[in-house]
From TrEMBL:
This is UDP-N-acetyl-D-mannosaminuronic acid dehydrogenase. Residues 317-414 form the UDP-glucose/GDP-mannose dehydrogenase C-terminal domain. Keywords: NAD, Oxidoreductase. Coiled coil: none annotated. It comes from Arsukibacterium tuosuense. GO terms for molecular function: NAD binding; oxidoreductase activity, acting on the CH-CH group of donors, NAD or NADP as acceptor; oxidoreductase activity, acting on the CH-OH group of donors, NAD or NADP as acceptor. InterPro entries: 6-PGluconate_DH-like_C_sf (IPR008927), NAD(P)-bd_dom_sf (IPR036291), UDP-Glc/GDP-Man (IPR017476), UDP-Glc/GDP-Man_DH_C (IPR014027), UDP-Glc/GDP-Man_DH_C_sf (IPR036220), UDP-Glc/GDP-Man_DH_dimer (IPR014026), UDP-Glc/GDP-Man_DH_N (IPR001732), UDP_ManNAc/GlcNAc_DH (IPR028359).
Amino acid sequence: MLPFNRVSVIGLGYIGLPTAAVIASRGVEVLGVDVSEHAVNTINQGKVHIVEPDLDMLVQAAVTTGKLKASLTPEPADAFMIAVPTPFKENKSPDLSYIKAALETIAPVLVKGNLIVLESTSPVGTTEQISRWLADMRPDLKLPHNEGEQADLFIAHCPERVLPGRVLQELVSNDRIIGGITPRCAERAIELYQLFVRGECLRTTARTAEMAKLTENAFRDVNIAFANELSVICDTLKINVWELIKLANRHPRVNILSPGPGVGGHCIAVDPWFIVDSAPEQAQIIRKAREINDNKPLYVVEKIRQAADQFKKPVIACLGLAFKADIDDLRESPALDIAKQLLSENIGEILLVEPNIKQLPAKLAKYNAELTTLNQALEKANILVVLVDHKQFKTLQPADVTTKVVIDTRGIFG
Ligand code: SAJ
């Protein structure tokens, strides 16, 4: 089988762009395709439209050497990697419309021998569904879901597993699970990933690969839910949950995660629902964990309300809006939801501190809210709510906040 001379990455977001740039840095010609004109133009100028450490340098180098180009329209290539969003709908069932739209774009340029890899986190059965959709779009081609190893196209799933903030390291160093509709589909995809992955490429079926990714995130969600439930129990029993967890974790086989204001990001709070949707009767702990984590922001708001009742003029400082420490990503952030709820209820004066952004998102700006510095917030607030454990906040000492009511959802004061 010939090597990959040209790879096309469909979807140039948090996963697609770093993947495209890393492959281009290995000397392979990469065409990135996106529906956003802004993203395409920015990348073609050698710049980035998302924040991720070192990505700007990598993209600039790849564009300057001519190995990476972005476009609104697809062109023929040896391999197509699909990295588009897979959100859920109102009823928590998966929305695969971005995947279908991506296939509709590439279908006309596909030729015999092409490899198609789905990177987007997807419910079990999606890779086979891709094969069925392509059979409708390109009746002239033989597809692996019904032609097996005789098919004209190779189709596989290789779920992305990188941690935002460490994407470039993890893209190369993580082991990858590569599931083919047939064994040859998996083998062909492994050849592609071996161009840039130093971790092991582990071969399996497409369905197992799909479930593996969902399982990893559901595992983490269930473990965070355990910590969040403990924090609520400890409030009732008047026990310091942080001290409790530190002590319990001294047991050689116990490793409790950290409670927080809820679970954010677009993966852990979404993916477990795909399992629940596929097996609603069986997925009981997984569903309950989701509910516990989704309820945690409401619990935090209630605690803030109770604290505010003690003051004639409550001034509440919210420290952090991002979905986790030391990033600028506000998407699906419980901290953001809590701030928005406080603003909408008009509980008191709300001070918002988020050192990683320069401008508030429209969701909050519409309440005439403004960003404040940590020092100003410390000066003015009588209630301090720690929502994110950013490094700037971790330097605070208990002595800095003795005059305030502190609601520390991240345990920075221990
Ligand atoms: N969180 C806690 N307590 C903890 C750990 C996390 O409350 O002890 C919260 C965070 O504050 C955040 C949320 O959970 O709001 C998720 O953060 P995270 O750092 O656990 O994970 P993500 O969403 O940034 O990335 C996850 C990773 N999955 C796993 O660790 C199993 C990453 O490897 C995946 O690639 C990514 O989801 C994805 O794209 O699916």
